[in-house]
Each structure stands twice: as structure tokens, then as C-alpha cells.
Design goal:
The protein is α+β, with helices and mostly antiparallel strands. About 25% of the residues lie in helices and about 30% in strands. A 7-stranded antiparallel beta sheet has the order 11-17-16-15-14-13-12. Helix 1 crosses helix 6 and helix 3 packs antiparallel against helix 6. Bound molecules: FE2/S2 (inorganic) cluster and fe (ii) ion. FE2/S2 (inorganic) cluster (FES) binds next to loops.
Length: about 350
């Protein structure tokens, strides 16, 4: 293999999404015992459902008989039944029954890949294995989700752009005072600054140099074994509850090469009465305003051509964008190298 081929494999891996990762794919409430849920992750079609005990199961969305999507089928006593000719498969991907054909040899065969699933804080995470990490590491989550003094709401959205642009957008605090300049929370602060980037224990922090406390001024990324997320603070005007800031915890899921799904927990550290009043205010008035801001991001990113990065001209503010790309490329390189050595060992 030439260096060029290897570089292309690494670029393709970054583009489709890293393996060896936990990715959130749906809200918990979307996965039911009554009907299957079809989705895609890293371009692969998946089906999820809850079995009889309420545990979530996840398989390739492909019927072992002739490939019909299992997500078009039905849940039968905790297993999934294909709509096309009724073949029933369990959560491990083993064919349980072929109702149309007595004593069919397919029964008892492990026919499909199954995936590890974990439900946490209203979201459903699926583990995509890699050669380096076939078994899932513990799912690392933002500490605010585990701390009861924080409260919040999960919002998700499907964006018609590669996940890399959604990550770049999060690693770019400078867009806040331009793209969101007419919003309720991000209309303040100066429009000129420099950026600085600092390493943190688990990742990095990108921050405006001259401005603090007004607008979106920093983002931190945490890179753990098997998961990556970011967080940032949005200062809150007094009209939006008990002052201070709202923290956004963000995960970005690669759906396929041109689609991603973003998962944002919008959190406040408020207790007692202030907590109840913020939760009420959020649902009654604030949520819609936050959606408007998120829509501005979505529309901008969807308007960018998929190959924009081949013609872009970065400047000092794009330190965070460069850093996130470097992290993805390094991880992809290590995955591709592990795959190539496993292939060579097998030959
Ligand atoms: S394709 Fe699923 S049962 Fe035939
Ligand atoms: Fe934004």
C-alpha cells in the first residue's frame, strides 16, 4: 500500500466517523416495545427496539432471509419479526423462527451483527467496535449529567451536513456574535478578538482572549476512550430566570457522509424553587428561542458545500477547528493502521 492510499483511507475514516466509539442515536422515549426504530450510524443501517424486559437491543437493519429492513417489521415477544415473510430474529441476531417453513435450517443460526447499547440521561448510545477496541469501554459522560445539582433538557436534531462541520462549528466560538447576533442570549459583546487554545486534562479549550461573560466565548472538548463531547456556556440575561449561564453539553453523531445528528443537553445548576421556575420558563418560553439559534447553525452548515474544506482559508480564529481535525485524523490513522496490521497478520 502506498502512502497516498493510506492517507485516503484515513481521510475516508474521518469522513464516515471514527469507530471504537459510543454514539448517541436516539432519545430514550423513541425506542419502544411496540415498534422498531430504524436509523443509520456511520452509514450503516441499524434497528433498535425494547425487548420484553425493557432492555434496548440493536442489530443491523437487514433481514437474514432476503435483506428487507427489519425496522419495517414488528416486535414479537421481545424479538423482531420481518414484515416481508415473517422471519423472527432475537436481540443477538439469531434466527428464532421461520414461520413460513417448518423446520427451516435457518433457525438457530447467528445471522446478524448485534451492537452494545447503553441508555443514559434520556439518550440511547450505541457502540461501534473497532479492531483496536472490539469491546466497549465504559461510556464517559459529562460530569454535569451525573451531578444532581444540575438539571436540564435533551434536544436532538438531524442536520444535512457531515458531522465534521457540526464539530467545527462547536470548536468556533467566534461565530456566536455574528451568526447569532440577533438572538435573545447572543446579541452582546464585541465582534473582534483573538483566540487562544489550551490543553486540558482530557482535551482542549478554545477561548476568546479579550471577552468573558458576554456571548458564547469558549468551548471545551473532552476526548475519552470511546467517546467525545464538548461543553460551552451561554450567558443568561436576567429575563431568562436566575441569571448566570446555561451550559450546553454536545455530542455529534455521524449518520452518514452527508448527515449528522446533534445531541445537546441544555443544563442549569439550579436547585429548589429556582430549579422549578427555570424548568417551567424553559418549556414555556426559552426552548423556542434556543431552537431558533440552533436552526441558524443548521441552515448555515447545510448551505456549505460538502467539499468546502478543500477550498477554505483558515485564520487565527480557527485554532479550535484545526485542533479538532487533528484529533480526528490521529485517531483515524491509528484505527487504519490497526486494521492493516490485522489484515496482514491474517494473510
Ligand atoms: S426478507 Fe425478511 S422474511 Fe423474507
Ligand atoms: Fe451556533
Amino acid at each position: 500500500m502506498t502512502a497516498i492510499d493510506k492517507k485516503a483511507l484515513i481521510e475516508a475514516r474521518v469522513n464516515e466517523g471514527l469507530r471504537g466509539q459510543w454514539y448517541p442515536v436516539a432519545k430514550s422515549v423513541e425506542i419502544r416495545t411496540t415498534e422498531p426504530y430504524g436509523t443509520r450510524l456511520l452509514g450503516q443501517k441499524l434497528v433498535l427496539w425494547r425487548d420484553g424486559a425493557g432492555a434496548i437491543r440493536c442489530l443491523e437493519d437487514f433481514c437474514p432471509h432476503r435483506g428487507a429492513p427489519l425496522s419495517y417489521g414488528e416486535v414479537h415477544e421481545g424479538n423482531i419479526g420481518c414484515r416481508y415473510h415473517g422471519v423472527i430474529v432475537n436481540g443477538e441476531g439469531v434466527v428464532v423462527r421461520v414461520p413460513a417453513m417448518p423446520e427451516c435450517a435457518l433457525e438457530g443460526r447467528k445471522a446478524l451483527k448485534s451492537f452494545h447499547v447503553q441508555e443514559a440521561h434520556d439518550a440511547v448510545f450505541v457502540y461501534i467496535p473497532s479492531v483496536e477496541r472490539p469491546e466497549p469501554p465504559a461510556l464517559a459522560l459529562p460530569r454535569e449529567l451525573e451531578d444532581p445539582s444540575w438539571t436540564g433538557f435533551l434536544c436532538t436534531s438531524l442536520w444535512g451536513t457531515n458531522y465534521r462541520y457540526a464539530l467545527d462549528n462547536l470548536a468556533d466560538p467566534m461565530h456566536g456574535c455574528y451568526l447569532h447576533s440577533e438572538s435573545f442570549t447572543l446579541a452582546f459583546g464585541s465582534k473582534q478578538d483573538l483566540m487562544k487554545l489550551d490543553r486540558t486534562q482530557a482535551g482542549f479549550r478554545i477561548e476568546r482572549v479579550a471577552q468573558t461573560g458576554a456571548n458564547f466565548v469558549w468551548t471545551e472538548f473532552e476526548v475519552h476512550e470511546g467517546s467525545m463531547f464538548c461543553f460551552l456556556d451561554i450567558p443568561y440575561p436576567p429575563a431568562a430566570g436566575p441569571g448566570s449561564f446555561m451550559r450546553i453539553l454536545g455530542f455529534t453523531t455521524p449518520v452518514d457522509a452527508t448527515t449528522c445528528k446533534v445531541f445537546f443537553w441544555r443544563m442549569r445548576q439550579v436547585e429548589g424553587l429556582a430549579r422549578e421556575s427555570w424548568r417551567f420558563l424553559y418549556r414555556a418560553a426559552l426552548e423556542e428561542r434556543h431552537w431558533n439559534v440552533l436552526e441558524q447553525d443548521r441552515v448555515m452548515l447545510e448551505g456549505m458545500p460538502d467539499d468546502a474544506r478543500t477550498r477554505e482559508m483558515l485564520y487565527q480564529h480557527d485554532l479550535g477547528v484545526s485542533r479538532i481535525r487533528q484529533i480526528l485524523t490521529r485517531a483515524a490513522k491509528s484505527q487504519i493502521e490497526a486494521e492493516l496490521s490485522a489484515e496482514m497478520a491474517a494473510e
